[in-house]
Each structure stands twice: as structure tokens, then as C-alpha cells.
TrEMBL record, chains A, B:
It comes from Thiorhodococcus minor. Keywords: FAD, Flavoprotein, Oxidoreductase. It comes from the Bacteria. This is FAD-binding protein. Pfam families: FAD-oxidase_C, FAD_binding_4. Its cofactor is FAD. Residues 55-234 form the FAD-binding PCMH-type domain. One of its GO terms (molecular function) is FAD binding. Belongs to the FAD-binding oxidoreductase/transferase type 4 family. Gene3D superfamilies: 3.30.465.10, 3.30.70.2190, 3.30.70.2740, Uridine Diphospho-n-acetylenolpyruvylglucosamine Reductase, domain 2, Vanillyl-alcohol Oxidase, Chain A, domain 4.
Amino acid sequence: MSRASSKWSSSLNTTRQLPKLSKGFLSSLKKVAGKGGLLTDPGDCWPYGYDNSRRQALPQAVVFASREEQVGGLVRLCTDAGVPLTARGLGTGTTGATVPDRGGIVLSFERMDRILRIAPEDRLAVVQPGVINASLQRAAESVGFFWPPDPTSAATCTIGGNLAYNSAGPRAVKYGTPRDNTLGLRAVSGAGDILKTGVQTTKGVVGYDLTRLIIGSEGTLALITEATLKLTPLPEAKRTLRATYADIHAAAQAVSAIMAQPVTPCALEFMDSSAIDMVSSYAGLDLPEGAGALLMIEVDGPAACIDEAQAAVGEAARGPGLLELRLAQSAQEVAALWKTRKALSPALRHIAPKKINEDVVVPVSRMGEFIDALERLSRETGIRIVNFGHAGNGNIHVNLLINPDDAEEVARAAECLDAVFSLVLRLDGSLSGEHGVGLEKRDFVHRELDPVALRLMHEIRSRFDPKGILSPGKSLPAPD
Amino acid sequence: MSRASSKWSSSLNTTRQLPKLSKGFLSSLKKVAGKGGLLTDPGDCWPYGYDNSRRQALPQAVVFASREEQVGGLVRLCTDAGVPLTARGLGTGTTGATVPDRGGIVLSFERMDRILRIAPEDRLAVVQPGVINASLQRAAESVGFFWPPDPTSAATCTIGGNLAYNSAGPRAVKYGTPRDNTLGLRAVSGAGDILKTGVQTTKGVVGYDLTRLIIGSEGTLALITEATLKLTPLPEAKRTLRATYADIHAAAQAVSAIMAQPVTPCALEFMDSSAIDMVSSYAGLDLPEGAGALLMIEVDGPAACIDEAQAAVGEAARGPGLLELRLAQSAQEVAALWKTRKALSPALRHIAPKKINEDVVVPVSRMGEFIDALERLSRETGIRIVNFGHAGNGNIHVNLLINPDDAEEVARAAECLDAVFSLVLRLDGSLSGEHGVGLEKRDFVHRELDPVALRLMHEIRSRFDPKGILSPGKSLPAPD
């Protein structure tokens, strides 16, 4: 089979010569893209070749689609010519999934940014993939609803990207991930065929579930051109608590206690002491002496029982090692708390440009054990590790801070990361909760994936994308 | 390719001669099944060849598996010999999916009925497929949790069956279907390979979502041997309301109003006037004069705000045509109300042995229009139609009551059913909300499924089950 990988075969950097796009191909590309829909100058293309993994590679052309038929035409063109095609929202992903490491075409969905329909009576929204998460939230809010997925990058990330990675964010602990909040899709397969999956209703069991198969597949099966999203009514009231503990173990115990009682928080975030140190400079945190870990706990629901909900999680948060439990008293205080949490990721980036940021998951009951082992690892390897994340899901952002100029440290960090992954799997966890695989984790996930399941995934991929043009080589490791 | 369908090619009745199982095959079968694990006498096998579709066909052997390796061995045996294999829980399905219409082997999961683990701190349960839904609920309840899927047959249906059909029941309106409440699976593919899918955590995006692909695939891709289920904390309090309306349109309007406000009921069931007539004989319903439709509305949540929740849905239920809104005052009254609702299906069965029971879904906002059109259809065709179901999901059990001895009426009913399906699709609905496809709807669902998606489904199926031995010919219509 002539697969895209045969010519565009290995990871390319910008200096290496890419296989040339033929004149015929370029002229067809122009036709498909339409006026103003194509970039070919390397200088113009360059900004479309990065994502938040800090990897970057030069696409040979960038196409801006405005309509589904254009996407179909472009995919067919690339399939016929065996040219790699990488779909892209706004580049906030952290795994390199949208970096065109083998050259070829980048398809930007930024112009397919229309909210097509919001139907409160059916609790759904129909959107194009380039709609920004925050724009959808604003539109839904105006009729009393929201869409639960809420990544830290909500202000700039697209729904298409959220679906590609199954990105969730803090609210997932109560409201689930995109897979739990999407009813149906329209998409273009790697063969260039337009397909429709799922339903417009909250039940439906006709045919296999291609909707959730495509969600989380990082643009390797089909390119989403439209999504029917399930909306949730906005809660009437919300309370934000900050609980400070002497150490991370006390905080982990509190998380277990909170998740074992009936009131499910709508956010349950944590920071370890390194993370606290890191953001202290950003904001006057006003923490009690000896603060070793911090939980942000949010509950929502009907106004009539928000006091009781707050009391229930507050009670569960009280345990040995609690130093302070504080209720945010004003909208300003809530905003300040969240600003702190959301500042963590960029703050880390600032301090350690080469941080390795993992988003592993372990069962909530194993978090204490996990954190213990991370501390041991940090001591043993001398690598500074900063942890924060979505504790209610056991989804921990483990950050290894390294000096990129210290080759020996870089090597130790690689070993340390390896040990982190082994640890996660030993604890029945997963290597990625919401960032996905892309290029960053591709060479690790075979450790987690069952070999039979992995083989089936490859076979499914080859049916959706027979020529292997959609993000070739990404997301799945080579079969065993 | 030597597919099972070549020899065991078409629907068989009990009188037709089935291809004989070879001596060698039977002796291997005995070895795989172990002592007491095999039936071959037709008289013994006969009870394992039916489901609640009232179809029945004779399996040539019945195997009772106790362990996953046995399932693997059996599937490999059937794959090698090209013998059809039909998996079965306890036969409560309504679509014929477990009826061995082409003979071959029936695999009963009734002995794989152990709850392996319940972990409240991680909000999960690990179960074998033969566990009865109600047994799981009891075990989960003892630690303060429940598993949301709750089909009417919960007392006798298995978790494996619930997963095979993605069966949901009334609580889905608030808590979702099995796809929303399952974290991971172990299964045996049609090639006889054991595979593991998903995670033990509430987030995870490594690899494609094979978990939800297998859920709802009716035993045509892989046979589930173990499931990790997501548990939900039991609500503290519950209230059950009965709202009676002058006619079904008033009730449909109330459903829309209830679903457009923030308090999501945990059940929102309805019955039309024919359904009311039908169950009146079962129970003293004590309905107001002129009752033309009935809603059962249940809300649950923290005790502290159950009054407010009840008030909110009650307010939404009040509209033109409301005759009475009554709160069940005691546990007895609640039980009586639910008994009425749950008696409907068997009552209908009793009155009309050949009832055609559909479980179509339409968007909630289209229910009024749908019911109108059904009434018109009933008048035009002279077929009596009884409607009830899960109104909050727009999941309506449309029952056509026919006299099986009246050939002319049977023919008219077929036309009527055809029109019902066209109507559902015109209203953006789905032909099955939770019963699935099996044999009953196989010849209709091509109208709903996108042809490209259907082709991909067939291709996926052929990768999971290369010899086509798992329930051959069922669930998916032939490709276009």
C-alpha cells in the first residue's frame, strides 16, 4: 500500500529538504482552498507549525477551510497524492499532535468558527470545530446552560481540539469529559468521505459508537467538521473553598474523603508545596504558616442547598493536617483563587522552559502512595518535581523541572520520567488524562495499551485512513 | 474468506436441518466447556434459544463459561471451525440479538456472575458479565452507591446484557447510559484474543475508545468478560410526583418545560391514555376525571434541597391541561406508582401477544409533533397505538397492538411501523434508544445510519471478528 509514510517517512526538522509538492498538486490545492485560503510561503506557513509542546516543524502549505466540502476535497487530494495532512485548531495542545513533523499540509479550522444552533429545549448545541471554547460558553450561558469541558486554555482553544484530545479540565470530576458531553459528529475520514455519527438525542444505540471512537483520536481517524454537543443547565449557586494542609499526604487523604461522600464537587484541584512556592510570587496567597499543600474545592447546585453542599465537602476536607479551611467571600476572591491555579502552568513554563509536563492519572485512592513515590524519586534523581492538577479525577500534572543546558540532568530526567510512568501503571493508572499522546507520549503508551487492543486500533485506523495521511506516525505507537 | 455465514447462511427455524457439528468439534467443545459446562441435547438446548422478542431458534450446543480463558478457547474453536457463536445473558433482550437464528453455539454467561470488587473510594465496581443488575445495585447500595443503568428488567437482566445493548432505563435522563457509566472492559474478540480496554480512572485518553465501541455492539465485536463500572453516590432523598393531564400534548409541553429548567429529574416517564387504560385494571390509579396522559416525575438529591427541587419541577409541570399534580406521600405510594409503570410492558404483552414494541427516540422538543403524527397514523391505519416511555430522553416506547391471526391487520401494521420510522428520522430521532437492533430492526437501521459510517462499522466488525462468527448477520444491515 502506498502510504504517506513511505515518502514523508521520518520526523523532519526545518533544515532538511522536504519532498516537493508537485505543480499539479499545488494547483489543485489552490482550487480547493479558494481565494485567500492558502499559504505556501515558508515565512507565512511557519506560525502554523507549532503547538504548546514547543515543538515546531514547517508545513509545506497551510489551508484554511470554511466549508465541510473543502475539507473533503482537501483530504481526497492528499490521499491521492499521499501527502501528510495535519489538522489544527489554535495550537494549544501540548503533545505535538498538530505539529507537521513530516511536512505536508496543515489544515487550519480557525475559519470554521460558527455556532450553528443552540437549542435549550433539547439541551444541545451544534458547532463548527473552530469555535473557541469560551465563545460557546458565553453563548450557552445566555440561555442558562454550559458545556462542561473547560480546559485551562478555554479562552483560546477550540471545540475541535477539545474533541480531538478529549480535553476536560477541572469540571470533569462532576460533569465528565467531551466523550460524556457529545451526542454526534460530522467528520471527513482519511479517505475523504464525509460521514455522520451519533444522534441528536441523549439516548441512541443504532450501530457502533463511532462518535466516541473519533473523540480522542487526535485527528488520526477523521477530521471533525461539526459537533452536536450536550449542554448542561447552569447551576444556580457555587461556592469556592481553599483548604491548606501541612503536607501533600494530608491533602491526598482529604481528596479520598471528599470523593467517598455523596456531594461531588464541581472542581477539586490541588497544588503541592513546590507549586505553592511557584505561584506565591504571582499573588498574595496569604497562606498559614507551614502550608505544604493546597486544595481548591468548588461545589455547585441549587441555591437552596449550597450551604449544605459546602458543609458536606468542608466536613470531608477536615482531617489530620488541615491548617486552614477558608471560604472565598466574594467574586473577587474566587477569581483570585482561580487565577492562581490557572497561572501555574505558564509560571512553570517561565521558570523552567524545558519542564516536562505530564498529565498522568491514578485512582483517587492511590494518590497518597503515588505522591510518596514521586517524592522518593525526586530525592533519588535530584530532579525537582512540581505537582498540581485535578485531584478529584486522580489526574495529576507532574512537572519535572530541568535545565536544558545540563545534558546530564536531561538524561536523569528521562530516567525519572520513565520511572514515573512505570509507577503510574503499577498503580492502575493511565499515562494521559486529558492532554493526549501526539508525539510526546507515542513511544511510551505501548506500556499501557493492551497489545491486542493496540493492534485493533491500528486496524481501525487503516480502515478510516487507508493511505495513512492523517497525522502519520502520531498518537499510536508502532504495533508490537 | 471462509465466513461463518457461508455454511450457516440464513435464518433457520427449528425444523430445518442445521449443518452438523463434527465429532472433532464436539469433542473439543467438551474439553473447553469442562464438566457440567455443555448441553447438546436439543431438549436441553431449546430454552437457551429465545429472548424477549419471542423469537426462538435451536442452538446446537450450549456452553456455560466460568472463566475468561474458556471464553477465549470457545471463540477460537468456533472461529477455526466457522461455527456461529451467540453470547447470552439471561435472555431479557427484546430484539432477538441472542437468538441463534443460524444455529451454532450459544454461550451463556450466567455462571460468570461474580462481583469482583467494589471500591467506594474510587467510585467503581469490577464485575463479571453474568452479574444481575439488581445484585450489583444491592452490593453498591450497601456502601452508599449505585450504578445508574436500570432497565425495567433490572431484577433479571445481566450487566453483560446491559452493556451489549447500552440499555439505560428511566434514570438515564439524569445519570446517562452504560456508555457514560463504564470505565473499562476485558473482552474476547471474534478472533479469540483476550483484550483489555479503557482505564480504572474517570479520565484517560491513551489510544482509541474501544470501551464504548464494544458497548452497544450486541456481542458482534467482542464478548465482554469483565467490566469496570463507574459508581455514583446514592442521593440522600427522592420525591416522586404524578402529574395528570387532559391530553398527551399538554404532557409533552410539560416535559419540554421540565427539561428546559435547571433541576434535571432522575426519572421523567410518561403514559398516554391507552397506556393508562391498560394498567388501570392492575392498580387503583385513582386518577382525576378526563385523564388523557400521565407523567411520573422523580427528583433526587441532598435532603436539604429536595423541597426546592420538587417545587422547581412541579412549577415546570404546571401548564395548560394539567388536571392534578400529586406528590407520593409514602414509600408505599411510590412503590405503587412504579409498579404501575413497570407493569405496562408485561400488561401489553398479555393483551397483545404480537404487539410491536418500538423504542424510538426523538428530540424532546419534537415529542408533541411526534405524538400528533402517531395519532394521525393510528386513525389512518386503524392500528391501535399505545405510547409510554422515558420522556426526559424523548425515548418513546411505541406499541402497535395487532391481532396476529388477522393477516390484513398484520400487513397494515407493517406499513404503519414503516411510517413511524420515517417520521422519527424526519424529526432527527433514532430508531432505537436502548433496546438495540438485533434481528428486529436490522432491516430498518440503514435508513438512519450514514452509508459511510455503516461501511466503516462493517470494516471494524471484520477486524474484530474476521471469520464473522459472532452473531453473524445481526445488528448491522448489509452494507449499501
